[in-house]
Amino acid sequence: MTLPARLLPALLALGLAACAASVPIVPLAELDEGAPELRRVGDAGRAVAFTVEGPEDAPAVVLVHPWAGSGRVWDALLPAFTGARRVVRVDLPGHGRSDKPALSYTVERGADAVVAVMDALGVARADVVGNSLGGAVALAVVRDHPERVDRLVLIDALGGGAVPGVFASFIGTYFTPAAFHGVDDGLIELFARWFVFERRTIWNDRFLSRLLSLRAAPDGWAFSRAVATTLRSAVAFDATPWLPAITAPTLVVWGDSDLVIRESAGEHLASRIPGARLVVLDDCGHMPELDCPADLLAALRPFLGLAAP
Question: How many distinct structural domains can be found in the chain?
Answer without folding.
Answer: 1
